[in-house]
Amino acid sequence: AVALVAAMAAPAMSGTDINGFYRAKAYTSNYKNYTTGNYVNPSPADNSSTNDYIEQRLRLKFSMGEENVKAVAFFEQDMMFGDASGQVARNQGGAIQGDSINLETKNVYLWFKIPNTGFDLTVGLQNVSDPYRGHFMGGADMAGGLATVKFDPISFRFGGFTAWERDTNQSDDTELFIAEARIAPVKELNIGLNFYFIRDGADALGGASGETSASNNVAQQFLGGVQVVPGITKIYMPGVNFDFNAGVAMISGFAFMQFGDRVYDSGAPKTKFSGYAADLRVDANAGPAKVFLEGLYTSGDKPGTTNKIEGVVVAEDFKFASSSSNPTSLDMTILAPSADEINTSRNLMYTSNNNRANGGYAMNGVRLGATFIAAGASMKLGDKLTGKVGVGYLRANQTAPVALAGTNLNLKKDMGTEVNGSLNYNIMKGLDFGVYAAYAWLGDGYKVSGSPDPDNLYDVHARINYAF
User: Pick the residue with more confidence: 1 or 446?
Assistant: First the structure.
């Protein structure tokens, strides 16, 4: 009977794949506390408390279909040990009788490829990253359509996404359109030419029916002390990226600019956008070690400037995703987010534009921009043991406006220097255990006259991860 059931089930299961990971991290830190966002001085500044807690994440990805067509469902469950139970909320359910409704749907989409062609299409709620290491939009989950066409040595990627639908009236949607071309003139060199277009009508109707105060947040923010009125934002974003295999090293980088405006229904002066960013990275082998050096620059808003946004606008500004602009390639822990984070993600430069306060693009003078230099090395220390070290320096390119004086939000540019290291042991296939530590010396950007200097920051955590 068992053999018969297995034989009958085999054809139905032949096109089904399940993969994902389980990850748990135990923290000791004087600034991380199961939250996301920019680091702000503790209170009192010179006597920050130590936080100890454990968080976990499970991700499950189901792919059903055949060689040329697949339906995909991707789910996630996050929690902190002992946080809450019996709640209707995400990221909870870690307390006794922890039966919260906390299963999150990350992706649900259909992928198919036209046989014997280079064309494929993904339709639905999917994960999308830009070609700039995710500095505008990395790992964002959005609903839309994305097509890829390949004609060696050229490939194209283009599509459109509705980040916010609001009340089904098209005039107040938030939309993103992308067009990318990638060419490999020689096998050692890949060049990408990209163009993004963002249209945001969040307040085109001044708060359309069905909108909540959260979804209509831009109308409640301020630009230069004047409340924002309904209008349409259009931002154009051309850019280039490349990677070059020089033999002894891999050299890669990108550059993009943003221009456009927000036109207000009331006829008030336009808000102009003019941001830019650039990055250069070198990866190389140095004996038994793998090393990297990376530099990042993003423009910032000049203090006191009104009706002009010169800092880089990122995905969060349009509510494309929470914390989707993560500069994880810098491989930091305190200065910038790590690709290994679960829900704890509290850093000096939380997003690529170094936005020092909530409020999105309508809040002038908080995108300080960033000059970031990072380096690191990793090396096998045995058959199963790997060590890694890193160092980074962060400096704002602009200071905060005078209106933020006393809030410890970067009245000076020097933000901090970090050193970090880790040891990771592979227990068996897919199962790893590691110990991680990082320490950051805060710069003058966090020191306010007449207030105690804040403590330097540290993070020590143990991590277990099983990928399947």
Answer: 446
Bridge-based pairing of strands 345-347 and 36-38 is: parallel
Antiparallel, parallel or unpaired: β 385-396 and 308-309: unpaired
Tens of pLDDT, residue by residue over 252-291, are 999 999 999 988 877 888 889 999 999 999 999 999 999 9
E-assigned strand segments in 167-268: 174-186, 189-200, 222-223, 226-227, 231-245, 249-264
Calculate the alpha carbon distances from 148 to 6, 118, 128, 180, 181 in Å.
Answer: 38, 8, 13, 9, 10
Q: Which helix H or strand E contains 9, and what residues bound it?
A: helix 2-13
The pTM is what?
Answer: 0.87
Closest CA to 223 of 208, 238, 205, 203: 203
**Strand locations in 16-139, DSSP E?**
16-29, 36-38, 51-66, 69-80, 103-113, 119-128
Counting residues of the chain whose pLDDT is more than 70, the rounded percentage is 82
Look at residue 414 in the predicted model and tell me its pLDDT: 93
Helix (H, G, I), strand (E, B) or coil at 436: strand
H or E segment to which residue 6 belongs: helix 2-13
Q: What is the reported pLDDT for 408?
A: 52
Point out which residues pair with 463 in neighbouring strands: 25, 434
The two three-digit tokens of residue 168, written as one number: 């089904």
